[in-house]
């Protein structure tokens, strides 16, 4: 009799645990899952294995259509994830619109008139809400969209830890303070990245995301006309590249004209970005200083990645995982927003 009671209790406990792990995937496995020998901060690639196994397929199908319609969107979504993680950690705070309680990060200096891709995130969210209501967080959607955009542009794939939850707050001041500016010196860049627990290797590898996408004339105009406050161009700019840029980016006005960050293969995620830097054809000051700044490690890495694309891909994947693990909200912190633009 005693044995039967114990068996029944064990069965009840098992059923409860299955219910819990279905209701809250990751309740047992995954939280504290290991990746590359590190604790993955409570995130797990299997997080939606039971609650929304089709999550990544849904993300990819929306991305394929969006990128086919607008090639720039892949780079925009990659940048969105970056600009989210550097503020309060990867918590989708960048997606929140202004409201009575929220001052949106969308209006910060680094974001205003330049971050884009919000409609694509909305579309992914609405499809996921149809398939698995209130299950996949907006923060995880940003991480999945960044990886998907990389893959669809010909770049690497990686095993992505999931299980982030969404912030109920945004930080305009954090966005203004923590996102590295395009005219940053190498010392600035190292400091911005160190503040996030990212090192020089992460800095160079993640800068490689500039292999796709464009930049506004306003972000590199200083290099063409007044690099050191002496009304002279940046002497590190290769001459023909400099003249090409001048024709599309006038001294006054034209701030929103755009130029590819990697004009060699602007739609392909490859290592051409690093090859161009070696030839004096890096578009932004923050690209050029990886080579010309006085940090030996970043100089050497630019040369290595220019020579070896697979090495770049491998490190980019590891650095994206590391960045995606910045201060995530897990467990019962934050929420899973129904609409990525506002708190529940």
From TrEMBL:
Site annotation Transition state stabilizer: residues: 79
GO molecular function list: heme binding; lactoperoxidase activity; metal ion binding; peroxidase activity
UniProt keywords, alphabetically: Calcium, Disulfide bond, Glycoprotein, Heme, Hydrogen peroxide, Iron, Metal-binding, Oxidoreductase, Peroxidase, Secreted, Signal
Cellular compartments annotated: Secreted
Disulphide bonds in the chain: 52-132, 85-90, 138-340, 217-249
Cofactor: Ca(2+); heme b
Enzyme class: oxidoreductase
Record bears the keyword Metal-binding: yes
GO CC annotation: extracellular region; plant-type cell wall
Enzyme Commission number, as recorded: 1.11.1.7
Catalyzed chemical reaction(s): 2 a phenolic donor + H2O2 = 2 a phenolic radical donor + 2 H2O
Source domain of life: Eukaryota
Family (UniProt): Belongs to the peroxidase family. Classical plant (class III) peroxidase subfamily.
Protein name: Peroxidase
Originating species: Glycine max (Soybean)
Lineage: Eukaryota, Viridiplantae, Streptophyta, Embryophyta, Tracheophyta
């Amino acid at each position: 009799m005693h044995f039967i009671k114990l068996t029944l209790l064990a069965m009840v406990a098992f059923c409860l645990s299955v219910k819990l792990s279905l209701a809250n995937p990751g309740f047992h496995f995954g939280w504290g899952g290991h990746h590359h020998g590190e604790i993955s901060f409570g995130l797990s690639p299997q997080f939606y294995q039971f609650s929304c196994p089709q999550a990544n397929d849904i993300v990819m199908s929306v991305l394929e259509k969006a990128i086919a319609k607008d090639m720039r969107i892949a780079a925009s979504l990659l940048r969105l994830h970056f600009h989210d993680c550097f503020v309060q950690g990867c918590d989708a705070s960048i997606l929140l619109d202004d409201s009575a309680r929220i001052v949106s990060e969308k209006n910060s200096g680094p974001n205003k008139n330049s971050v884009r891709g919000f409609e694509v995130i909305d579309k992914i969210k609405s499809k996921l809400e149809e398939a698995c209501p209130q299950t996949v967080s907006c923060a995880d959607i940003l991480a999945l969209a960044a990886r998907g955009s990389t893959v669809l542009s010909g770049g690497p794939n990686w095993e992505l830890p999931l299980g982030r939850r969404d912030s109920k707050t945004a930080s305009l001041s954090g966005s203004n303070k923590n996102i590295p500016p395009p005219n940053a010196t190498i010392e600035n860049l190292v400091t911005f990245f160190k503040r996030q627990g990212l090192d020089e290797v992460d800095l160079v590898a993640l800068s490689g995301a500039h292999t796709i996408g464009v930049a506004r004339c306003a972000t590199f105009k200083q290099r063409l006309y007044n690099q050191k406050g002496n009304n002279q161009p940046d002497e590190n700019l290769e001459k023909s590249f400099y003249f090409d840029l001048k024709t599309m980016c006038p001294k006054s006005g034209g701030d929103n004209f755009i130029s590819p960050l990697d004009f060699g293969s602007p739609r392909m995620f490859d290592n051409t970005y690093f090859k161009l830097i070696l030839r004096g054809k890096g578009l932004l000051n923050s690209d050029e200083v990886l080579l010309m700044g006085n940090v030996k490690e970043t100089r050497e890495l630019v040369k290595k990645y220019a020579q070896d694309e697979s090495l770049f891909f491998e490190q980019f994947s590891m650095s994206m995982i590391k960045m995606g693990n910045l201060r995530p909200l897990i467990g019962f912190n934050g929420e899973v927003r129904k609409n990525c633009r506002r708190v529940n």
